[in-house]
């Protein structure tokens, strides 16, 4: 700020005729913010606004680019009257709720376990980071070898253990396909939850536990009245990130099931992609995308308010 | 309380943003329209008025980019080298596309709808012309090329690349499906090469029972375009069709017969249950690892089955035309596949692009394709006697009856999805055959009338 002060205020003062140092300071600040603002505008706000505009138009690709034709709520009417849309919303919602819940629960267990094993903590964190760091498309391909109904590893192991007699067609039946996807997802993203929760655990002052022990609390009580309330911020953060990601689930079913069998594992993101890039219906696709954003926003708000309410009562 | 305030302000912000956008959209419509019109006159020299004018490309020069999606390694390079030798004034740069057809389409539509002038020429699936023409992603080649240009192609191929009376693509190579069989196993159990689907099923079951192979017959049953191809063949064999006078016709007895037979292959154990997750590579793998008696696949499976590094059945494989249902003629229908060459409507060097197309569909390039086991589209090359020496599947071509997918509508992706989604579900056993067909029927009509999701 200071170095630019002698020159820039003069210019601004002359051109605008303003004389207050405060105002010019504010201007300089704003002008310094402008580059960052433009970048954010260009990469975040503009695409969002543009897709909202697209969703209210009938869009034809022509030789000279897109041709927009305002058609009001027609795209939304068509999207909301399609059974496939509601089917994919339902799949996305229950898939997200179940996987995020399991991930938070498992993540908390693992984080607590790691926390108490001082020596192996860094090693176990590094090991656990592997699934999370692997690119999903690659790990999904790996899972497809595991789940493969003919030469899959999972079938081979289960048959060796005499748990099943004939190979199971994991990805070829609706129920097992959904469960298989969930397992692959939980395997991949639980470590993310663990990392956040471990760092949250480290922030809790040791004195609290000491105080609890002096008050005669057993470990269950100290968990509920010290660990959990202190950790709620981290849990909310991890949950929020995971919900945001889970609602956009695309790569796993894209590689493992192509949305099948039938449409059993078609997520809302897959539907949007297909509408946009396979069917080339840009207006409809934008309507799907905007609906997805509203859905995610709603889910996050519900999660936050539910989580805060619950924790608030527990704490008091 | 604080949080609620935040949430409320968030919502208010959101709705006002939406309101703002709704208010603006009428204006944006106009302004984008104007912007496009002006840029159109500046950069696009192709088809400015929509009238046709034949382009003379004899002295073409410059550099063009060719987006290629061959699955076999070096073929594109070989073709480009031969072309550049013949036409030294034109340089061709290669742009390798994703091998997944849908991903390939997505990258092409993103580039071209965004106004990119490259790739100048691209390879595209034979089922794309209607959709690409409707979205102006492909230049109307028949406007720029003389009528006589199209005489070089085998019958029926040009009509597949035509939409509303104009030709949008030049057929590059064709493809179709065959029945591959283990001749050693058929000989061992004294069984003839099957001519009907019923025979395929019973012979496969017999060999499986005797322990000759783990599976009988493998094909493509996953939730994707390939399943539409497989289904269309059984449907045509049973005397049915997807569209009748433009309306879906899948509630017919023929459609029921076709899908019931496909399902019965699974329930009888001739086909593994996991076939509903098989694309070409998975089904081919089972066959080349020696675990199946019969395989339905495209022409390239022949060379794959004869490659010792990947195949355990080298020298044990026979190939024949696809069978049909008993009482429905001597051989069955095969789906027409293959790839075309399209020209980007934004190309800056149309003459060079057309010269390249001309050469690629001429006898020299088409012979190179044939040597690499791709089925030529040029009539002279396709009809030559010497063709059979490259692959035994070429010798079967006169026997093959072709069935085309209903790709004359720009909504074809949705039509096909209606078929493969529901057929796949029926194969998985989660819905009945008749339910799957009536759903498919309904979704096809929906897709065609409203261009649905």
What does this structure look like?
A two-stranded antiparallel sheet of chain A has the order 1-2. Chain A is mainly alpha-helical and 316 residues long. Chain A starts with 7 loop residues before the first helix and ends with a helix. In chain A, strand 1 and strand 2 form a beta hairpin. With 453 residues, chain B is of the alpha/beta class. Chain B has two domains: 173 residues, Periplasmic binding protein-like II (D-Maltodextrin-Binding Protein, domain 2, 3-Layer(aba) Sandwich), CATH 3.40.190.10; 199 residues, Periplasmic binding protein-like II (D-Maltodextrin-Binding Protein, domain 2). In chain B, the strands form five sheets. In chain B, strands 2-1-3-14-6-15 form a six-stranded mixed beta sheet. In chain B, a hairpin with a 2-residue loop joins strand 9 and strand 10. Chains A and B meet through helix 2, strand 1, strand 2, helix 12 and helix 13 of A and helix 1, helix 3 and helix 17 of B.
């Amino acid at each position: 700020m200071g170095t630019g002060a002698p020159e820039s205020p003069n210019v601004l003062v002359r051109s605008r005729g303003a004389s207050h140092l405060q105002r010019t300071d504010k201007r300089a600040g704003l002008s310094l913010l402008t580059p960052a603002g433009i970048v954010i505008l260009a990469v975040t706000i503009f695409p969002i606004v543009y897709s909202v505009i697209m969703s209210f138009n009938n869009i034809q690709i022509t030789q000279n680019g897109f041709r927009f034709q305002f058609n009001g709520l027609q795209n939304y009417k068509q999207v909301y009257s399609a059974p496939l849309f509601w089917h994919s919303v339902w799949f996305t919602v229950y898939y997200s709720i179940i996987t995020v819940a399991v991930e938070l629960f498992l993540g908390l267990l693992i984080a607590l376990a790691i926390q108490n094993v001082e020596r192996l903590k860094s090693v176990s964190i590094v090991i656990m980071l592997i699934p999370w760091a692997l690119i999903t498309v690659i790990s999904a391909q790996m899972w497809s070898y595991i789940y493969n109904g003919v030469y899959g590893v999972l079938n081979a192991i289960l048959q060796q253990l005499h748990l099943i007699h004939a190979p199971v067609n994991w990805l070829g039946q609706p129920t097992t396909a959904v469960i298989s996807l969930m397992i692959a997802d939980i395997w991949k993203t639980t470590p993310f939850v663990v990392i956040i929760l471990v760092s949250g655990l480290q922030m809790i002052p040791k004195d609290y536990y000491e105080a609890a022990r002096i008050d005669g609390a057993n470990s269950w009580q100290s968990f509920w009245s010290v660990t959990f309330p202190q950790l709620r911020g981290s849990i909310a953060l991890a949950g929020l990130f995971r919900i945001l990601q889970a609602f956009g689930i695309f790569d796993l079913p894209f590689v493992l099931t192509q949305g099948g069998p039938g449409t059993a594992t078609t997520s809302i993101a897959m539907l949007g992609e297909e509408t946009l890039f396979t069917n080339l219906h840009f207006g409809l696709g934008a309507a799907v995308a905007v609906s997805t954003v509203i859905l995610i926003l709603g889910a996050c708000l519900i999660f936050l308010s539910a989580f805060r309410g619950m924790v608030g009562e527990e704490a008091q | 309380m604080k949080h609620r305030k935040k949430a409320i302000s968030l919502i208010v912000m959101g709705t006002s943003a939406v309101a703002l956008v709704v208010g603006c959209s009428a204006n944006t419509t106009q302004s984008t329209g104007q912007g496009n019109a002006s840029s159109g006159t500046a950069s696009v020299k192709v088809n400015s008025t929509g009238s046709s004018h034949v382009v003379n490309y004899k002295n073409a020069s410059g550099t063009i980019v060719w987006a290629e999606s061959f699955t076999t390694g070096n073929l594109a390079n070989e073709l480009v080298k031969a072309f550049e030798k013949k036409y030294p004034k034109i340089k061709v740069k290669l742009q390798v596309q994703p091998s997944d057809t849908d991903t390939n389409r997505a990258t092409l539509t993103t580039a071209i709808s965004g106004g990119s002038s490259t790739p100048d020429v691209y390879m595209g699936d034979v089922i794309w012309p209607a959709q690409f023409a409707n979205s102006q992603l492909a230049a109307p080649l028949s406007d720029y090329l003389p009528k006589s240009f199209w005489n070089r192609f085998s019958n029926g191929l040009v009509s597949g690349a035509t939409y509303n009376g104009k030709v949008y693509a030049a057929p590059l190579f064709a493809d179709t499906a065959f029945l591959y069989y283990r001749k050693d196993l058929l000989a061992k159990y004294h069984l003839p090469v099957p001519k009907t689907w019923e025979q395929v099923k019973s012979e496969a079951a017999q060999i499986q029972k005797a322990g000759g192979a783990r599976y009988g017959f493998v094909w493509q049953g996953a939730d994707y375009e390939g399943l539409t191809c497989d289904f269309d063949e059984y449907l045509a064999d049973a005397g049915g069709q997807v569209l009748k006078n433009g309306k879906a016709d899948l509630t017919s007895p023929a459609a029921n017969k076709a899908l019931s037979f496909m399902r019965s292959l699974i329930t009888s154990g001739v086909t593994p249950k996991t076939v509903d997750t098989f694309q070409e590579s998975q089904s081919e793998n089972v066959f080349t690892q020696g675990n199946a008696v019969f395989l339905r696949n495209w022409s390239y499976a022949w060379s794959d089955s004869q490659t010792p590094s990947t195949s355990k059945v080298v020298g044990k494989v026979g190939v024949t035309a696809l069978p049909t249902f008993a009482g429905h003629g001597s051989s069955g229908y095969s789906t027409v596949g293959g790839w075309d060459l399209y020209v980007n409507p934004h190309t800056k060097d149309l003459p060079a692009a057309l010269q390249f197309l001309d050469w690629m569909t001429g006898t020299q390039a088409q012979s190179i394709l044939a040597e690499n086991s791709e089925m030529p589209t040029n009539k002279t090359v396709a009809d030559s006697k010497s063709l059979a020496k490259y692959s035994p599947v070429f010798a079967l071509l006169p026997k093959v009856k072709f069935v085309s997918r209903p790709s004359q509508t720009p909504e074809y992706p949705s039509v096909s999805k209606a078929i493969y989604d529901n057929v796949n579900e029926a194969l998985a056993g989660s819905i009945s055959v008749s339910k799957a067909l009536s759903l498919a029927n309904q979704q096809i009509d929906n897709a065609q009338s409203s261009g649905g999701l």
